[in-house]
Specification:
Structural class: alpha/beta
Number of strands: 19
Number of domains: 3
Largest sheet: 8 strands, mixed
Radius of gyration: 26 Å
CATH topology of the largest domain: Aminopeptidase
Mean pLDDT: 96
Amino acid sequence: MQTPAEEMCALIARLYPICRSITGDGVRKTLAILREHIPLEIHEVLSGTKVFDWTVPREWNIRDAWIKNAAGERLVDFQKLNLHVVSYSVPIRRRMRLAELKDHLFTVAGHPDWVPYRTSYYNESWGFCLSQHQLAQFDEREEYDVCIDSSLADGHLTYGEYLLRGETEKEFLFSCHICHPSLADDNLSGVALAAAIARRLAALPRRYSYRFVFVPGSIGAITWLARNEEQLSRIGHGLVLTCVGDAAGITYKRSRQGDAEIDGAFTHVLRHSGKPHKVIDFSPYGYDERQYCSPGINLPVGCMMRSVHGTFPEYHTSADNLEFVEAEALKDSLDTCLKVIDLLEHNRAYLNHSSKGEPQLGKRGLYTGLNVDGNQRQQELALLWVLNLSDGKHSLLDIAERANFPFETIKFAADALAGTDLLSVVTS
């Protein structure tokens, strides 16, 4: 039986060859494979549909593309790497010299073997991405056969959604983008992690309901928000998953609110992890957290990543391949998310029923004296912290932060006290 990390790596490897964009059959094929892992509901939204200030674009599909020399050899071949074609390139079939072709060729400066990832979603044009070594094979005197066998026509935008119901209708939203072609970390790692979280939660008791959305970047999140505006008040926590498989430490980007419960929970878990990490403030640039946190929406949605977009050389290049993603990093990302989920599932406020003076813990079997080892001493202090701050207003996370204790220690103390006459949970 595969470990969760092995399952995520296998799913990434299976999805990696598929040519995806913001619409089209590549997205449908990707969602069909995900449906083998979790029971996705697949939605199709017609081209031309108004979604807030945007319009669902025409659907793009591609069958083949190449640049051939006079001998008929493919110098650039879409069949070998789907990054070779600028996403959403309009169809073209012409012969031309390099002087005319140059404006449609893109390379990565400083990395002669890498191929860039480029798009042209909302500006009808065409282009090829290639390595500098490939470009060096071109001759100014030669004429080249250029073909992009694509279509851009009215169709649909496709996205997937899975709702895992819990005890309450309050939801935890997980979102990842599915519009990138053969890029492993950005963002197949996020797709695989979301599926792994969903599978794990399906087997556990849940206070919250969990909604997983697999959407094309920007336009997909905007479309989902526009179609679900009346239900957004149910979302109590949210997380965008992206670039979660590389070797860097975890970075958490706070929600626009800055002090949402998800922000506090993630910060707490990372601070007590003992591992390198960063917590950064919200900015209206990045991934789909900027859609979920837009002014008229302002959901409590943060973003989890390892390497931050645009800050590592492999970003949006062919070097973001299967070797760039590490099983251990995926495992750490999964473990971290599950710890945050567990914290939020158990983060409640309690009421101390013996608030006048410190209650006698010894007669309840909760206090053994001060001559104990450090762990026992911390547990006894945790009991006192919980009793002191359980006024119905402070959550367990509030208490853990005030005491500078791990959440698990405070939760253990609260569970012990709730087993006596001293403490009860506050029901909302």
